[in-house]
Specification:
globular; about 15% strand; alpha/beta; Rossmann fold
Length: about 300
């Protein structure tokens, strides 16, 4: 598998990102290896928080959460998905699949021997992370889902009556359809501009540059460009994962924002279907858009810390 590696100088002096880089190798499934970057902050023997980003961001998205979470006594592992951040970037869109992304993150969990994990997932972090929760439930202790969803949930389930009606379906479909069309038809979009569109606050020029840093040229963006087309893929495995999630008793907390044009309308699905959501203090992050870690990172970190302390 042919892959590119972003030059390290692209990541020098990023605002609010003082974290040391760590790397491991994962199987590219074609006889080669890919280098995956991850952050590892906090005490090595502390309870683990796995922070999974989505598209087209990278671990930089969690920069405002890592400090408060480690200060509370927890260890944070924040990988860059293959194709993003400081991780290697296969050059063909066909190199990427939902299954491969799940496998690559599963390798990270295995190599770092992570157990009793608290998953924090947003955007594609949920499509990948929730599959891992379903498939390797013994590795996880709890889940915080923020502006994310796993396709394949049973639309006709009685528990969803009145929660995910035709208005929500229309809103979600229009929102995702607009993003899908833009991402596939506009060859010139950049990660920083997308992060700004999905963020309620105004990003600084340095922050926009940091989101652009992994992609010095369009050839580096195959993984980011293909992600929208992968959303409806692998539905059989997703449906099986939902069967596992609908029996899952792990504590499961939702913290969706109120200004996400796609995901806000889906905030009630997990509480309706996942038993571990029962009795949890689900919250709405006010004044935040899709990338709520950037809009309200400290607030989301506080929600996470309180959740972990309440569910030992």
């Amino acid at each position: 598998m042919d892959a590119l590696r972003t030059p390290e100088e692209r990541f020098h002096d990023l605002p609010d990102y003082p974290f040391a880089a760590h790397y491991l190798s994962v199987d590219d499934t074609e006889g080669g290896q890919l280098r995956m970057h991850y952050l590892d902050e906090g005490p090595a023997d502390a309870p683990v928080v796995l922070m999974l980003h989505g598209e087209p961001s990278w671990s930089y998205l969690y920069r405002h959460m890592i400090g408060p979470v480690t200060a509370a006594g927890f260890r944070v592992i924040a990988p860059d998905l293959i194709g993003f951040g400081k991780s290697d970037k296969p050059v063909r869109q066909s190199d990427y699949s939902h299954v491969r992304h799940v496998q690559w993150v599963a390798e990270l969990l295995a190599q770092l021997d992570l157990e009793q994990i608290t998953l924090v997932c947003q955007d594609w972090g949920g499509l990948i992370g929730l599959r891992l929760v379903a498939e390797q439930q013994a590795r996880f202790a709890r889940v915080l889902a923020a502006n994310t969803m796993l396709p394949g949930f049973p639309l006709d389930h009685p528990a969803l009556e009145g929660i995910f009606g035709w208005r929500q379906k229309l809103r979600t479909g229009l929102g995702f359809g607009s993003w899908f069309a833009f991402s596939q038809l506009n060859p010139f979009w950049r990660a920083g501009s997308i992060l700004q569109l999905g963020t309620a606050r105004r990003l600084s020029a340095g922050e926009v540059a940091a989101y652009n840093a992994p992609f010095p040229h369009r050839r580096f963006m195959a993984g980011a460009r293909v992600f929208p087309r992968l959303v409806p893929s692998d539905m059989n495995n997703n449906a099986h994962a939902w069967q596992q999630l609908m029996a899952c008793q792990l504590p499961f907390l939702c913290a969706f924002s109120d200004r996400d044009p796609i995901m806000s309308s889906m905030a009630g699905i997990f509480p309706a279907l996942v038993p571990g959501c029962t009795g949890q203090a689900h919250t709405t992050i006010r004044g935040a858009s899709h990338f709520l870690q950037d809009d309200k990172g400290a607030e989301l970190a506080d929600v996470l810390v309180q959740f972990m302390r309440a569910t030992p």
